[in-house]
């Protein structure tokens, strides 16, 4: 059976490597070679087009990954070495029948991806985060850190940002909670979105950003640019950078937050808080930059506060009670998301940070997800209003 892998070397041998071969010229050569092989035996047109596309992707794009990247139903691509490729579709993980012809080809694709993001990965520095041209997030781990060959994980994002109306259709949130969050964003409450891996934090942050008034100056800060802030004219996007092979040129999240404070922002949006930059974000929230938004990994709203405490203490040696007061005065609202057993993503809680009493941060649940029917393949439930918001000063000032 004729395959793209079988013909790859034939195309490579006849390519004029001394000059820059254009896409049209490469396509002509590929189909000329296909026609030569077609004379030796019948090759269906559908198969011919498939092999031709795979060969073109092998030379110009992401090889066998290109078809997976272009498949809109696939949300995650996981490459565990040369032969094991897994994809996530509609919340289910399947093993793909695609394989790289060699480890060298996989490594070539990896270098292509990271170089387009102006990043470097090698044995000396085997871990890197990058992104594809379409905004998909890429994590690479090479040997010796990865024992079973080069590991690549690609988290895909929709071409257009998912809006709150779609989250309502998917029952991720109900109308009452969505309207409430809209008022909070417009009234410039500082909001943290928490949740586990794959719970939809970035998607939800994008959806919340719809409610930001269009005349504000917004600064986004991320490790890798993923946010899709829509219709904000005065938008500044900042991205961190790793050090080069000489150990210089690093731009940290902390540096970007401090720089952002000098850029007259109305709001700062920090894609994700992971470490000691938490202290700078909290200081921004406490020094007049209301309406700031961010996300963080946590198992509950309460756990998000504990993780913030730990992250602040990573960057500054101050008493725990002082840290808690800083968090309580900076963060107004925590929206906690979860991925259910039936693969649906839901808002599980909207909680208000009331303050700090006797050295402890006080939380109250405003909305809480309650399960109505727990079936094997479907979980039905409702986001129930539990309490009224206590700190209404910003809502009243905004006219609500």
Overview of this protein structure:
This protein has 400 residues and is of the alpha/beta class. The chain is built from 13 helices and 15 strands. The protein has helices at residues 4-14, 23-38, 45-60, 65-70, 103-116, 164-169, 175-186, 201-209, 253-261, 278-285, 301-315, 320-330, 393-397; strands at residues 74-80, 84-89, 92-95, 127-131, 137-141, 151-155, 191-195, 218-222, 235-239, 267-270, 293-297, 333-339, 345-357, 360-374, 379-385. The strands form two sheets. A nine-stranded mixed β-sheet has the order 9-8-10-11-7-12-13-14-15, with helices on both faces. A six-stranded antiparallel β-sheet has the order 3-2-1-6-5-4. The longest helix is centred in the N-terminal third of the chain and has 16 residues, at 23-38. The relative contact order is 0.09. The model has no long low-confidence stretch (mean pLDDT 86).
Outline the secondary-structure elements.
Elements: H1 4-14, H2 23-38, H3 45-60, H4 65-70, E1 74-80, E2 84-89, E3 92-95, H5 103-116, E4 127-131, E5 137-141, E6 151-155, H6 164-169, H7 175-186, E7 191-195, H8 201-209, E8 218-222, E9 235-239, H9 253-261, E10 267-270, H10 278-285, E11 293-297, H11 301-315, H12 320-330, E12 333-339, E13 345-357, E14 360-374, E15 379-385, H13 393-397
Parallel strand pairs: 7-11, 7-12, 8-9, 8-10, 10-11
Antiparallel strand pairs: 1-2, 1-6, 2-3, 4-5, 5-6, 12-13, 13-14, 14-15
Helix pairs in contact: 1-2, 1-3, 2-3, 9-10, 10-12, 11-12
């Amino acid at each position: 059976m004729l395959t793209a892998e079988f013909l790859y070397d034939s195309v490579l041998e006849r390519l004029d490597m001394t000059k820059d071969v254009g896409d049209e010229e490469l396509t002509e050569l590929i189909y000329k070679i296909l026609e030569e092989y077609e004379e030796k035996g019948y090759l269906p047109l559908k198969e011919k087009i498939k092999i031709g596309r795979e060969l073109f992707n092998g030379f110009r794009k992401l090889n066998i990954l290109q078809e997976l990247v272009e498949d809109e139903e696939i949300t995650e691509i996981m490459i565990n070495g040369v032969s094991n490729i897994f994809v996530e579709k509609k919340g289910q993980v399947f093993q793909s029948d695609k394989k790289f012809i060699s480890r060298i080809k996989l490594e070539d694709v990896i270098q292509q991806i990271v170089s387009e993001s102006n990043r470097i990965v090698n044995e000396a520095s085997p871990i890197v985060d990058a992104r594809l041209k379409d905004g998909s997030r890429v994590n690479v781990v090479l040997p010796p850190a990865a024992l079973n060959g080069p590991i690549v994980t690609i988290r895909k994002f929709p071409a257009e940002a998912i809006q709150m109306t779609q989250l309502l259709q998917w029952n991720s949130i109900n109308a009452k909670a969505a309207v409430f969050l809209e008022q909070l964003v417009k009234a410039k409450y500082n909001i943290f979105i928490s949740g586990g891996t794959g719970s939809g934090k970035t998607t939800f942050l994008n959806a919340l950003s719809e409610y930001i008034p269009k005349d504000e100056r917004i600064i986004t800060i991320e490790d890798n640019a993923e946010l899709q802030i829509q219709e904000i004219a005065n938008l500044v996007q900042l991205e961190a950078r790793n050090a080069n092979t000489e150990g210089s040129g690093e731009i940290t999240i902390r540096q970007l937050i401090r720089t952002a404070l000098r850029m007259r922002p109305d709001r700062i949006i920090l894609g994700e808080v992971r470490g000691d930059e938490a202290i700078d974000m909290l200081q921004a929230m406490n020094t007049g930059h209301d309406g700031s938004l961010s996300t963080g990994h946590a198992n509950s709203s309460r756990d998000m506060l504990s993780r913030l405490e730990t992250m602040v203490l990573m960057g500054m040696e101050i008493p725990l009670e002082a840290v808690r007061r800083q968090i309580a005065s900076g963060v107004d609202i925590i929206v906690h998301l979860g991925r259910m057993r039936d693969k649906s993503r839901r808002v599980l809680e909207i909680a208000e940070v009331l303050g700090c009493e006797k050295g402890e941060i006080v939380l109250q649940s405003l909305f809480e997800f309650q399960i109505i029917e727990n079936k094997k393949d479907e979980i039905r439930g409702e986001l129930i209003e539990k309490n009224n918001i206590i700190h209404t000063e910003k809502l009243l000032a905004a006219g609500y």
